[in-house]
Amino acid sequence: MKAKIAASVLPVLIPVFMLSSAYGQETAGPLPFDSPVTMRDMEAVCTGIGADARTDPRWPTYPLRIELVGRAGEYLGEALVTVSKGGEAVIGARCGGPWLLLKLPPGAYDVTAEVEGRSMMSRATVRATGQARVVLRFPDLGQPTQ
After folding, report:
1. Can you tell me the distance from the alpha carbon of 52 to that of 127, in angstroms, rounded to the nearest whole number?
2. DSSP string covering 78-118, please?
3. Mean pLDDT of the 32-54 span
4. CATH code at 110?
5. pTM score, two decimals?
């Protein structure tokens, strides 16, 4: 019964942080800023607020960088991000900052983010070396253009 409940809420993802497939370990609340969190063989960090955070020398070692931006390219935060592989969610995280960095195994992933009730999706290919970058633009959020 508990697995069915978890499966039924997965599409809306309550504010939890999950690092595993098959609804594994969960920690309530958003990720802390600039502090990597590890569970099993994956790692995530919520960052990107301020120049010091964006230039942190640790961040280029993460194979996937997800950026959230508004209509004019301004950074957005308070997002719920889900990364799936083969139709199965492998990580879901609530991030208050504009960047979510992930250490994931190489492969093709679907990335979905929800900000202020709006969703955007993209594909990412994580390679054995380098950093893949996904920019999810929310054209109806952020500062109005003049």
Report:
1. 26
2. SEEEEEEETTEEEEEEEESSSEEEEE--SEEEEEEEEETTE
3. 92
4. 2.60.40.10
5. 0.79
